């Protein structure tokens, strides 16, 4: 098994080694190799990612990704958008689980407002929102497969945005074809109701930017962005990353929460066929947190490394 390890920028360089140590504990025989991408590389050589790095990612069976800094510079191209498009990672999957609820938010990952089709005019700037029949159907099929005998909630603004009318129609047709129960909600009302009544939901499917927003908001249910993992999945490639960003304000202080990165490693394990090990990792994280081994964002005093050590000790 070949695992590309991408620390990225900021706290990614602190939390990814912790998550990698969990994988190495379970599978020391796997081939782990580093790949440098991100703002640091851009500052050093003028490109956040090169063709060699993309080739290295393509060769991997799975990618463990940290976080990258995206500066407000018109010449800087988003690394994540480039990787998602080049590897066709069309499904962004973010599980949010807590006492009494388990929700998976499935976000279309390659089009929408993150299509990358943008231009500037005198006094204005434009971003093209691309929603296609093919893209909508394949993300709906992915979500329907996760929903199985549960409920698939379709989040849109089809009352206002014509491209969401297309997404809604495709999602409904795919759910009915798969024999999956479905409901639809407008995304603004859905954001509120999900936070108030998370136990009502199972799988939520929506377009790119709406999924980005609602999944970040859902972090409130479990204690913040430092706890949420995610997967970016395509037909041939997959990479796993914490939902949080590079957090340059706390980078280098050793206090970043590694839980989201560790849970992302658990998702990687499940994806490559080791569901039991993934469950064991999640259980070890829960046990460490329950024992009070927490970083300052959760009211604790443990360092990034100490949380990782606590998780590993419980796995042993």
TrEMBL record:
Domain of life: Archaea
Enzyme class: oxidoreductase
Domain (Isopropylmalate dehydrogenase-like) ranges: 2-311
Database matches in PANTHER family: DECARBOXYLATING DEHYDROGENASES-ISOCITRATE, ISOPROPYLMALATE, TARTRATE (PTHR11835), ISOCITRATE DEHYDROGENASE [NAD] SUBUNIT ALPHA, MITOCHONDRIAL (PTHR11835:SF34)
Stated name of the protein: Isocitrate dehydrogenase
Coiled coil: none
Stated family: Belongs to the isocitrate and isopropylmalate dehydrogenases family.
SUPFAM superfamilies given in the database record: Isocitrate/Isopropylmalate dehydrogenase-like
Gene3D superfamilies linked: Isopropylmalate Dehydrogenase
Sample GO molecular function, one term: magnesium ion binding
The protein's Enzyme Commission number: 1.1.1.41
Key words of the record: Oxidoreductase
One record GO biological process: tricarboxylic acid cycle
């Amino acid at each position: 098994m070949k695992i590309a390890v991408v620390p990225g920028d900021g706290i990614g360089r602190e939390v990814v080694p912790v998550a990698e140590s969990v994988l190495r504990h379970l599978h020391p025989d796997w081939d782990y190799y580093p790949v440098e991408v991100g703002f640091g590389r851009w500052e050093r050589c003028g490109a956040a990612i090169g063709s060699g790095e993309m080739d290295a990612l393509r060769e991997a069976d799975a990618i463990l990704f940290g976080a990258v800094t995206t500066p407000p510079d018109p010449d800087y191209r988003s690394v994540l958008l480039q990787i998602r498009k080049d590897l066709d990672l069309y499904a962004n999957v973010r599980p949010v689980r807590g006492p009494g609820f388990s929700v998976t938010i499935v976000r279309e990952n390659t089009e929408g407002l993150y299509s990358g089709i943008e231009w500037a005019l005198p006094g204005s700037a434009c971003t093209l929102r691309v929603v296609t029949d093919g893209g909508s159907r394949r993300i709906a099929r992915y979500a329907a497969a996760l929903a199985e005998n549960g409920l698939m909630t379709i989040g849109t603004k089809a009352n206002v945005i014509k491209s969401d009318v297309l997404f809604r129609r495709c999602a409904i047709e795919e759910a009915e074809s798969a024999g999956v129960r479905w409901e639809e909600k407008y995304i603004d009302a859905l954001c509120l109701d999900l936070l108030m009544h998370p136990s009502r939901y199972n799988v939520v499917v929506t377009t790119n930017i709406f999924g980005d927003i609602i999944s970040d908001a859902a972090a409130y249910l479990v204690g913040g962005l430092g706890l949420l993992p995610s997967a970016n999945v395509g037909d041939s490639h997959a990479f796993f990353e914490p939902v949080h960003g590079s957090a340059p304000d706390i980078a280098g202080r050793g206090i970043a929460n590694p839980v989201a990165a560790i849970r992302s490693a658990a998702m990687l394990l499940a994806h490559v066929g080791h569901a039991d090990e993934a469950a064991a990792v999640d259980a070890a994280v829960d046990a460490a947190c329950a024992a009070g081994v927490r970083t300052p964002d959760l009211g604790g005093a443990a360092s990034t490394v100490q949380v990782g050590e606590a998780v590993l000790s419980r796995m042993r």
